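COURSE: Structural Biology Practicum
ASSIGNMENT: Worksheet 4, Part C
STUDENT ID: 0417
INSTRUCTIONS: Below are two proteins. For each, the amino acid sequence is given first, followed by its structure token string. Answer the questions at the end about the second protein only.

PROTEIN I
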Amino acid sequence: MSLPPEKASELKQLIHQQLSKMDVHGRIREILAETIREELAPDQQQLSTEDLIKALRRRGIIDDVMKELNFVTDSVDQELPSSPKQPVCFTDRQSTLLKKTNIDPTRRYLYLQVLGGKAFLEHLQEPEPLPGQVCSTFTLCLHFRNQRFRSKPVPCACEPDFHDGFLLEVHRENLGDGTRMADSTTMLSISDPVHMVLIKTDIFGETTLVASYFLEWRSVLGSENGVTSLTVELMGVGTESKVSVGILNIKLEMYPPLNQTLSQEVVNTQLALERQKTAEKERLFLVYAKQWWREYLQIRPSHNSRLVKIFAQDENGINRPVCSYIKPLRAGRLLDTPRQAARFVNVLGYERAPVIGGGGKQEQWCTLLAFLCRNKGDCEDHANLLCSLLLGYGLEAFVCVGTKAKGIPHAWVMTCGTDGTVTFWESLTGHRYIHKPVNPDESPVAEQPKPLYPYRTIGCVFNHQMFLGNCQPSDSVEICVFDLNDESKWKPMSEEAIKSVCAPGATTSLPPFPPLCASTIDASVTSNEIEMQLRLLVSEHRKDLGLTTVWEDQLSYLLSPALASYEFERTTSISAGNEEFQDAIRRAVPDGHTFKGFPIHFVYRNARRAFATCLRSPFCEEIICCRGDQVRLAVRVRVFTYPESACAVWIMFACKYRSVL
């Protein structure tokens, strides 16, 4: 293989730099002197090249050089939704600088480096992990102007060893074109922050949201040479939003370097004006919201007890209008239908916001990036995401805030069809319910529709453009009429007022919406791994009971169509393929034998945890602990992947045995 002259000279320069850095020339001189002194016979006057290379190889110098030269294809885990090719990096183990070769020189980039952390005092007593030991890790997730990145996981420590670089393209979304690079003044008008989310993953794979931070990057525009270093203090989330959790050292650099930097005074003035403008808009909206609420209470005093939620606190404890949590979101080619989108939201984990001590539910509506990176959230997070996706599919969708049985606050999604059909979507289960209102004035003997949905009351509905408070005599869902244009039933907020604080770019305090990312999970490999682990767990469990275990691979394989059918039904509400599965099982089970099967569904990939859950079911335990003549066991696992590495895991345990009366 021949290299072009310029590439060959570049390679020579890299090798020369590496040799100089390791002081290889000095070590060669030492070995040469030592070899001449120890190995050269008195009658020999010179040493051949072969002799010298042998001496260098024997002392490990050549191996050391080759180890230090480390070519990698992807040093930074990029989550770009549509990257045509991954960057190729050259790196050495002593340096944190990554040299990327596929940078477009006509575009403007912000190179953000995270150069370590400190003062993560919660991990002060954390022991140093041994090589190969599984330990809790920190992962830093970034979003900037429709680009997403994820750092390499680092062990949790008081001073976590973050050393990652992220190349953020500033020049996007029609700001300039390929022939004109964005200058300092143009970039100063780009108010999008870099959203940074820190996630902790424990040894069992459970994720926790540690911090969420919006980095104002434009200070680099007023820095000398377009390079600046920052110390970022990360605050906790929820009830700990006023408590520091740690500090990150960050370096920002513009590429290509700026021809003309702005004065720091100009940058600071622009940022101050934006903050002032945002504060004024938020103040005016708050004044309007208070007036709207007073008018709403004057309609009926009982409205004071209805769940009409105009503002909600995010993970940083900041009150935001609820409409700002919604935005039409297109999933690209990752999700094909609204029902598939509902299934995706359903398989994201459900977890109520953690609260220290008692006192009921802690409110925390997460920003979308924090929800997606953690892969789990509360019912409001699920409802906001599902509503955004359904709006992206062109449906008229709203988030409903009300209660379930026993007065438990809840949020779900509603779509209004062009024919007047009202459909409720439960974001935690993926179930859909058609709403048919009960007429309270009908005769008691008249037949009324029986509601199948679990919702009891409804206080308000909203999306990215509208907010409506329920002002009907009763807030009971079953008798509620969803004619949203009737102001005698639904009191609307001014759409202009909502637009002033919730429209994209209206204020600099709004967190931008990130794109969805494709799954990084290999469904086949993961299915096999979980299945093998379950086989081992079952065999050990039966061994403890004094039972032998004989697996039948063919029977395990025959369970696959059933698992695929179950997932298809969850996604489409259509059952298919059951007849073929039943016919195959009948053929596989001889006369006089009994077949038993137990399917179960999880949204996590921890085999031991799933097995413990299965054993709590008497039906499953009966199969796993089956006794009898000619007992044959089978287990099949099928993992279905969705965006954001969410997954639906279907497991089926089965056995067949000879019936002995």
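PROTEIN II
(use this one for the questions)
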Amino acid sequence: MDPRQISDVYEEVSGLPAPVGAHVGEEQLAELRVLTVTAEWSQSVVTRASRLRYSQQWTLIPDSNNRRSLRTVLSPGPCLPVSGELVSGLSPVRGLRAVVRETGGRQLLEVWDLHGLRKCLDLTALDRHGRVHDDAQFGCLSWSECENKLLYVAEQSRKKTDSRDGDYARWKDRSVYCEDWGEALAQKSSPVMCVVNLQSGTVSVLQATPPDVSPGQALWAPGGQSVIFVGWYHEPFRLGLKFCSNRRSALFKLDLDGHCERLSGDDLSVSCPRLSPDGSTLLYLQGRVFGPHSQCLSLQQLDLRSGDTSPLLDVVDRPAAGEFAGVYEALPPCCWSADSQRVVFSSACRNQKDLFMVDRRSKKVTSLSHTRSDSPEVYGSWKLLTVEKDLMVVCCSSPNTPPTLRVGFLPSAGERVTWRTLQPPVLTFDFHWSILDVTPSPEEDNSQYSGLDFGAVLVKPSHSLHEAKLPLVVFIHGGPHSQFAAEWNSFTAGLAKLGFAVLMVNYRGSTGFGQHSILSLIGHIGNQDVKDVQRAVLTALQSDTALDPSRLAVMGGSHGGFLSCHLVGQYPDFYRACAARNPVINAATLMGTSDIVDWRYTSVGLQYSYDQIPTAEALAAMLEKSPITHAAQIKAPVLLMLGARDRRVSPHQGLELYKALKSRASTVRLLWFPEDGHSLSKVDTQADCFLNTVLWLHQHL
């Protein structure tokens, strides 16, 4: 294979845009009701080594005789670049658009109306706080009901001093260590809530937040005299927050006069507060503290008038075949129906991602994806971007169909959704994909959680490029509590276009199969999950004669890299190549360097507490379950890709395996990315990883 050809393929599949957010507007023109859908897109551009964001708008005219049907969809407007925007929000009545923008090293708060820029504040010059938070954990930008105030979260100001200021008390503290919230949240330590008064142009920092919590995901309470926020407890010290729904946190209400009260239970994990359109109910997700870092969550509803909380959806331990499998993902910013009686969300469901609606009155959950459509495509993934004016805007995709923007009205009782495609993908691909249901053998069954199965998604080129049989790449997700949905994946698509079959495995412990499946992996990493992947590969080989059993490779990142290295060590004559990104190699040596030290204990079946001191027994258990114990048996050539700034899995993990293999004259290659972290998410890093992975597979298969 020519490297230029490989790079061109990756540039094509990775450069297809995906919608990441949407807003629905409404206007009444005489007797004509007009809706506008504004979608924000993200597009990777390899030649620029960056991701571009742009917006595009559609005009929709509903049927005058049926408000839940679209009569006309006009051609979209042009794509407009969105430059430097960190967070944005639309006011509820006048449709003013607030933006925090970064330009020239400064952060500006802008307010736009129909006539252009209405207000601009230089937040950096005002110097009331540090950088504005734009991440999914803390970031927000919320309008008050009166539309005169804005609420956002920023880093607490830390004034720099030197000895010449004469402030020796502060100068001596200039080198004091400052904790942060771990992987991808470096330098985010002490967030504060900030209120902008648009009439006076002043910024104030809310001071009465409990001292032991870090606030985020803030919104105005009805009436505009108090704010509601999620507070993550940071004592005795901070643990990594990204990808972790098990951090102790609570919902708080803070009055502007300084009174603060906790609204949710104490020893719980909460996130995603969403206020109903009528202002009566607050919806939020709730989970357990510690244990699995990602879990099946309950959906709670808080009556703001009475203060009573009740579950709308409980944790699903073991879903029945074809039934709703639970909530595993964050709620979109807008998820309520206009009448405040229904809630819409997306979630993992076995090997797919589905769109669901729950009725608060009956608590009945309905899938909204299997309905009438203007498209013959079968989508493996439905992701809700927003629901406003009862119009849902979703992103649909499958392994052979890139992200597609679609809309549909919430159905009345007994009706189906009629979906309309606003923006089909530029390209579709001639791949075949299928879902495999896999059952462990009796010897591999988990006695505590017996009878669990799992699955995989198989993607193949429809026609082999050169040979009768296809080489198979086994692709393993990280987490371990995450999922490979049957959705667009540029890495998988690139491999399939180059002639490889790809098997994406959702071993027991993956999300979308119920809480029991997640819990079954605790204490069994390095064994149950390894055998599950091997069982999935054998199932695929037995069911599909187009796959070549003599040309098998394995790849994955994080826990997927952990399993990849386990597989080539435990089955040394089965796989012919391995590619691992930031893999866990030795859990015992990782314990002191990871931002989620609690998972190091939980994963091997041990309880965690903040004051935990390592014991010989705990370290032995971690070592026993680690791939490094099988390093001497590895025969397959191993490609390692490491991010030097990884806070979750230290790059010294991969270096440990690298040295073990080098000392035995085994074939190993290491790629080092000095500016990247755990996800290896930079555009040029991903292109480099794809190129080197394909060349490695081609050479050794």
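ANSWER KEY EXCERPT:
Q1: The chain is about 15% helix and 35% strand.
Q2: The radius of gyration is 26 Å.
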